[in-house]
Design brief:
One of its GO terms (biological process) is mRNA splicing, via spliceosome. This is Ubiquitin-like domain-containing protein. It comes from Dreissena polymorpha. InterPro entries: SNRNP25 (IPR039690), SNRNP25_ubiquitin (IPR040610), Ubiquitin-like_dom (IPR000626), Ubiquitin-like_domsf (IPR029071). One of its GO terms (cellular component) is U12-type spliceosomal complex. By secondary structure, this protein is α+β, with helices and mostly antiparallel strands. It folds into 2 domains: 36 residues, no CATH class; 90 residues, Phosphatidylinositol 3-kinase Catalytic Subunit, Chain A, domain 1 (Ubiquitin-like (UB roll)), CATH 3.10.20. Helix content is 34%, strand content 22%. The protein has a 5-stranded mixed beta sheet. The radius of gyration is 21 Å and the shape is elongated.
Length: 157
């Protein structure tokens, strides 16, 4: 078990003491949660925040990213953050990251064949399918807070 030396802990009086790794990580998580809750920019983010989520939130604040609302078949809407010049493929990757992170936090199953998902479903915006993975989503007319629908593909003959 690894231990962390901690000489500036409250009550340590400059004396170096060792903490087990799990205890040190617990302290860091608590401090991070306190910082997040106290910051108006980050306060709506979960306590178990990832670096990617922090970077996305900062990019949103600086206008370098936008939120695309993705409506699932069960009418659940997911706010997906992508860069301003994102392609359809970037949006698909962001949807995957969002879903996997959501499942991890809910302790749900995370094994999913995304190749199968994209083979069986389309993303639609304003009645048009987002078929070209290399096309920028802005070229489809998608802007900040627009809604994209995740729909099952109809049998093509």
């Amino acid at each position: 078990m690894s231990e962390v030396a901690h000489k500036d802990a409250p009550g340590s009086h400059g004396v170096e003491e060792s903490l087990p790794h799990t205890e040190a990580m617990s302290m860091v998580r608590k401090e991070l949660a306190d910082i997040i809750q106290g910051d108006p920019l980050l306060c709506d983010l979960p306590a178990e925040i990832t670096l990617d989520e922090i970077q996305s939130q900062i990019a949103l604040e600086y206008g370098q990213a936008m939120v695309v609302n993705v409506r699932r078949a069960d009418n659940q809407v997911m706010g997906i953050v992508v860069t301003q010049n994102a392609t359809v493929l970037d949006l698909k990757h962001a949807i995957k990251r969002h879903f996997v992170l959501q499942q991890n936090r809910a302790k749900g199953p995370t094994k999913l064949s995304w190749k199968y998902v994209w083979k069986r479903h389309w993303l639609y915006f304003d009645g048009q399918r987002l078929t070209d993975d290399n096309m920028k989503i802005k070229d489809y007319g998608i802007h900040n807070k627009d809604e994209v629908t995740f729909m099952k593909r109809l049998q093509e003959r």
